[in-house]
Structure formats: C-alpha cells, structure tokens
Design goal:
CATH class of the largest domain: Alpha Beta
Strand content: 5-15%
Oligomer: single chain
Structural class: alpha+beta
GO cellular component, one term: alpha DNA polymerase:primase complex
EC number: 2.7.7.-
Distance between the termini: 41 Å
Enzyme class: transferase
Largest sheet: 5 strands, antiparallel
CATH superfamily of the largest domain: DNA primase, PRIM domain
CATH topology of the largest domain: DNA primase, PRIM domain
Shape: globular
Family: Belongs to the eukaryotic-type primase small subunit family.
GO molecular function, one term: metal ion binding
CATH architecture of the largest domain: Alpha-Beta Complex
Order of helices and strands: HHEEHEEEHEEHHEEHHHHHHEHH
Number of domains: 2
Number of helices: 14
Helix content: 40-55%
C-alpha cells in the first residue's frame, strides 16, 4: 500500500462520517438497495453500481479497497447489478466552478481561487438559495465545497428528488436565464436583459450590494481594459455619454447615469455576478458527482459542507486537508468537527 493509500485508509477509519453519509444517500435506509455509489482508484478500478446494506458495510468497503474518489449516482428502479437498470430519482444538483468566471476575474485563473474572487461563488450561492427557496419552495440545500474550484449545491427535498429530466431541463433553463444568455464579439458570456420580470429585480437586489465590492477587489474601474470591457455592455448610443466621465468612472456614477434605465444596470451586474452553471450536472439523472467528505485527488482537500450563513467569509485555502487531519491539526481555521456537526444537522432535518 503506497503512502496515499495509507493516508486514505486512516481517513476512512477515523474521519469519514460513514453512518451520516449512508443515512443521507439512502434516505435512512429506504434506498439502500437502489442508490448507486461509484468508487475510483488510479490504475486499479472504477466500480459503478455499488450499493450497501448498511453503513458498516460501506465503511468496510472503503477501508478495504481505499478508493481515491467516491461519487454519487442516482436512485435506480431495481436492485443494482448493472447499467440496464433505469435511473428514477436524484437530488437536484447545481455545480458552479470558478474557472467559468475567468473572463471577469483578474486575481486568479483556471482552478485557482482566492478571497478576491470567492465573492463570485458567494453571489452564486445567494441567488441559488433565493430562487429555489422562494420560487420553488425548497427547504433543504446542502452546499459542499468541491475540493478545488467551486461549490456543489445538493437540493434534497423530496419534490426535487422526484423531478424527471424534462422537469430538470425546464427548471435549469428558467434558472439559467438561458434565452437571454449570449456572447459578445470577444466571445465572453453576457446576459442582456430587455424586459422587466419580477425574478430579475429580486436577484438584482441580492447581487447589486456585492457589485461595488467586487469591482474594488477586481479593480474594474482602475484599468482601461477592464473599464472598456464593462462599457461594451452598454447600448451603443449610451457609450459616448459615459466615456466623458471615463477618468472618474465608478459604479456609483453608472447607477446615477442609468437610474431611469434599470435594465442596463441589471444586465451589467448579471453578466459579472449571476451564477454560471454546468447544465448537464443539473439535467441528467444518471450524472455522477463527487461525494461530500471525499478527498479531492488534486488538492487533497476535504470536500466539506459550507455553512450558508457564513459563506461570504469562507476561504477554500483554509479547509482541512488529508495531511492536516493525519497530523491531527483539528484546530485549523475550519474545524473538521464543525463540518461534521453541520452535516449532521442537515441530515437530521432533510431525512425526517
């Protein structure tokens, strides 16, 4: 057994919350025979359609085979044996990755993320929670750090579990502002709002208070290139009026200038801060997704749940890692025990 496998084996023995995890994915044992788990180990195996009769059986499997990655699949119609079975149910999941915002962040790129660009993830979370709680009446949303560059949102209400793929497609298109999204001549994604709609105004009220802070952190109004990128979002006949204020341009000035044309302000804020989602993850019932409390293979970070109430101050660079747990550094910035307690409360509330 190599060093990584030894560390993972210790993690599965001492830290991985097998009992809580099993209770969550099987709905307190209701779907123990039909909920798919998949396990992967480099140059060794990729096993799909696994199911376990108890948390004890799951724990024994993890300790014996030491997978490097655990993924969650759907709930099938029959006892899991092979891929002939039909996927019937799955939580509604939204995947947000920070590298999808690379055209509007300048502090990092690709899989890197820091405090200056985390505001983009925080804004996505605020919008997702608002839409699915206020528009769709959902109550149980688990926010999980993906381990490297984003957040997975598991919407676990019974109603969401039973959405078919057609319903998932409708909801995703509604949420994604699909008909409004396009790209500019630089091939950067933009959202161009042409008509008033209650949802747009609600989301704008959530995002606008973050926009000035975002502009400050990303220095949007401090460099010519970034100012020009923002000005390209304005109607052609308005650009000349604004360029006269270019030296002192700020979000406050733009808000004042377009106070009678709120749709322009909404388009600007949405283009920068509105959630950018992976549609396939949300729509496809049989899509696999990395499990909470998995160890990310590239960063060795734990995929910990995130407390929505403190998501603005979450720092992905300070979460527990496989090494920090192995060295018993449990007093790190984010306590692993706190993550377990957060997950425990969520499981109790969502499986009642």
């Amino acid at each position: 057994m190599n060093e990584l496998s030894q560390s993972l084996c210790l993690y599965y023995q001492k830290f991985f919350p097998s009992k809580l995890f099993y209770q969550w994915i099987t709905r307190d044992g209701k779907y123990s025979q039909t909920r798919e788990l998949a396990a992967f180990k480099t140059d060794s195996f990729f096993n799909r359609y696994l199911h376990f009769n108890s948390s004890y059986e799951l724990s024994n499997y993890l300790i014996r085979y030491v997978p490097e990655r655990i993924e969650i699949g759907p709930i099938f119609d029959h006892l899991l044996f092979n891929k002939i079975n039909t996927a019937k149910m799955r939580e509604f999941v939204i995947d947000i990755d920070i590298d999808d915002y690379d055209d509007v962040r300048y502090c990092c790129s690709s899989t890197q993320v820091c405090e200056k660009c985390w505001v983009l993830m925080s804004c996505a979370a605020k919008v997702i929670h608002h839409i699915f709680k206020e528009q769709f009446g959902m109550k149980h949303i688990l926010n999980v750090f993906s381990g490297r560059r984003g957040i997975h949102f598991w919407i676990c209400d019974e109603q969401a579990l039973n959405f078919n793929e057609q319903m998932r497609t409708y909801i995703t298109k509604y949420f994604n502002l699909f008909t409004n999204q396009c790209t500019n001549k630089d091939n950067h994604p933009i959202i161009d709002i042409h008509e008033e709609y209650p949802l747009y105004d609600e989301v704008y009220q959530i995002l606008e208070p973050y926009f000035e802070d975002y502009c400050e952190k990303q220095e949007i109004f401090k460099t010519e290139q970034r100012k020009e990128q923002l000005l390209k979002l304005l109607p052609q006949n308005e650009i000349s009026q604004v360029t006269g204020k270019l030296d002192n341009l700020s979000w406050i000035i733009l808000k004042e200038h377009f106070k009678n044309n709120k749709l322009i302000l909404i388009s600007i804020v949405f283009t920068y801060l509105y959630p950018r989602i992976d549609i396939n993850v949300s729509v496809q019932l049989n899509h696999l997704l990395k499990a909470p409390f998995c160890i990310h293979p590239s960063t060795n970070k734990v995929c910990v749940p995130i407390n929505f109430n403190t998501i603005d101050s979450f720092d992905p660079n300070k979460v527990p890692t496989l090494q920090s747990l192995q060295e018993s550094k449990l007093s790190s910035f984010y306590s692993f025990n706190d993550s377990i307690e957060l997950f425990s409360r969520f499981v109790k509330e969502s499986t009642q």
